[in-house]
Structures are given as C-alpha cells and as structure tokens.
C-alpha cells in the first residue's frame, strides 16, 4: 500500500516536470520566433529605407542647372523701361526669413558672381542677389548659381537669386550650358579683381534696376544694400538685430521712423584679409593696409561720414549702437541700413555715376536723418584708384550728371512740402 502510494507520487512528479519542460520549450520557441520576426522587420525596414534613398533624387550641379533653366524659360516680367527682362526668385532660399530680420542686398554680373560665397559666409543670414546677364552669359550665370547652391549649403539656405537680362536675350535656345562647364566644387575662374560689373556690358548695366529687383524680393523689415565686392564686419547682422530689439525698432509705433543707420566704408589693400572687428580695422589702418572708401578717387563722396571722429574711438564693446548723427551734404553717398520702406533707387541711372548719390539725395529731401553706427563697418576688396575703372567711366558719369540735375528738379514736385534741397 505504501509502495503503491510512493510510486504514484513519483509518477505525478515526473508528469509535472515533463509538463514544465514543455511549457519552457514553448516559451523559448515563442521568443525565438519573436526575435526572428524582429530581425525580418529590421531587414525589411533597412531594405525599404535603402530603396527610398536610392529613389530619392540626388542634387547635382547638372540637375540644379536644369531646374534653373526651367525657371528661366517659364518667363519673367518687363521692367518699367521695357528694356530689361526680370526673373524674380530664379532660385529661392530654402530658409524662411521672418520680418524681424535684416537682409543683405546686392547685385552683380557673372564676373563677380563667385563673390557671393564670401558674403554668405560672413553674413550668416538672408541675402537677396540680383544677377545681370546678357545673352552670351546666361549659361555661365545659371551654371555659376547652380554650383554655389550645390557646393555651399549656406547659400542654398540663405541666398535668393534673381535675374535681370536685356529684353532681346534668348531664353529658349538650347543648349545653354557653357562649353567645358565644370561641375566640381572648387573656386570659380570667373572672378576678376579689376573687372567691374559694367566693364564688359554690350548694353548699359542697369545697376539701380538690379538693386531694386533684389530689394523688392525682401521680406524683412530692414535691408542693407552693399556692393558685391564688399564685406561687412563680423556679426554685424546679429549685433544690429540686438540693437533693434533693445531700441524697439520693430514695434509698430516705430515703423514710420525716418532714420537710416550709416555703416562706415573702408577699402583694403589688394590681397589683405578683411578685418572682423573695429579694433582690428584700426590697427590695419595704422599699418597702411586699410583706408576710408574712395579716399583717393572721390573723397568728397565719403568724407561727410566723419571718419576722423569714428576712428578716434577704439572700442571694447561687443554691441552696436548709434555713435553720432551727420547732416547730409552734397555729394555724400554713404552705405546704410534702412527699413525696406525707404525710397527705392531711380532705375534711369545705369552704368557709372550718381546711382547711389541720387537715392541718398532723395532720402534727405524726404526728411530722413543719418545716424552713424559705431562698431560696424564695410570693407571693399582692393584700393579704389583711377586705374581700376573702365575707360568709359567719365563719359557715363557726365551723362548721369545731366540726369541727376533733372532728378533733383523732379524731387521738388515729389516732396512739395519739404524745404530740403540737394545742393
């Protein structure tokens, strides 16, 4: 009896053990199947991602060129004179600039297109660039813009390109790709130090039209119009935005304020690296590597900025602020930051002479005041001398001088309540 009971308990124990082993086996099989399923899912996901990546178009200089060509061929608009064709936003910036910002505005021909790279690197914010191209240069311009956008992410992110060309320039003719075009990301060979934007033009270079095309595309409250061969001081944009926020310049109550902020301009000896800070600039000026802009060529056009007072003060400050105000005097043509609502440039001025003086003259008549900024500056690449200009400069200047007299007379009718005149 006792033997039979013990044997029964032994058999029952074995049954329990076998059942437990079977449950454990099932659990292990389930886990193994789960791991295998996860591995299958991972493999499938990787394969799916790889297939999607392979199908995703790779942006190349060639593909970017093709996109720009399609944008060009879709059409454009005529300028008010009916002589030039304008393609706004030929290549839009990928980034979005808010109204509470400052946009650098410039214009150039194909000869100076590569200089946009230095501006974008120094500025680190929204840029608007109008490029002038005659028919024979359209391919080079599109190719140059394509290379800049593909090779330099900062340009693709921040820079918007617009096109201005003579009305007769063919845009549907193919191929437009320049012979021997190089798709590599290395320095371009189209940059000529002594070659001015308008020196090679077969038709008048519409400098003020180009400036306006670039300005009209701007979405920010403030603009800073410069020449493409100039560099601003380091962090100028960030410093101005901090000053604008502190001074509440973006408040609605300040939108009608008629103040422009003059940025002193200098020129650096050819081959000299542009300074980043005012103290660096002052030291380089002592050593003869830096001098005020147009010092040799047209000192009276810049002297009213009062460089002597500005240069007397070295600074340890890392912020930007108005230093002093300057009364307008003929023939002053400063560079300045303004609201984008300020008067545009008169597009009748082409080639060389009075194109910026005329706008500053209008600002004066319209009641604007000029406040010179400390701790901010521009530096032109190379000394300005008579030898650096094209041989038709004097003829162009005389023609524009006649136009300027007419322009000043027209301002009397445009601003009948103003007692200010440009003389």
Automatic annotation (TrEMBL):
GO terms for biological process, alphabetical: protein O-linked glycosylation via mannose
Q: Which UniProt keywords apply?
A: Glycoprotein, Glycosyltransferase, Golgi apparatus, Manganese, Membrane, Metal-binding, Signal-anchor, Transferase, Transmembrane, Transmembrane helix
Q: TM spans, by residue?
A: 6-29
Give the bilayer topology. Single-pass type II membrane protein
Describe which pathway this protein belongs to, using the record's wording.
Protein modification; protein glycosylation
List the molecular function annotations (GO) for this entry: glucuronosyltransferase activity; metal ion binding
Q: Which residues form a coiled coil?
A: none
Q: Where in the cell is it found?
A: Golgi apparatus membrane
Q: What is its main location?
A: Golgi
Per its record, the protein catalyses: 3-O-[beta-D-Xyl-(1->4)-Rib-ol-P-Rib-ol-P-3-beta-D-GalNAc-(1->3)-beta-D-GlcNAc-(1->4)-(O-6-P-alpha-D-Man)]-Thr-[protein] + UDP-alpha-D-glucuronate = 3-O-[beta-D-GlcA-(1->3)-beta-D-Xyl-(1->4)-Rib-ol-P-Rib-ol-P-3-beta-D-GalNAc-(1->3)-beta-D-GlcNAc-(1->4)-(O-6-P-alpha-D-Man)]-Thr-[protein] + UDP + H(+)
Required co-factors: Mn(2+)
One GO CC term, this protein: Golgi membrane
- Family assignment? Belongs to the glycosyltransferase 49 family.
- UniProt-recorded name of the protein: Beta-1,4-glucuronyltransferase 1
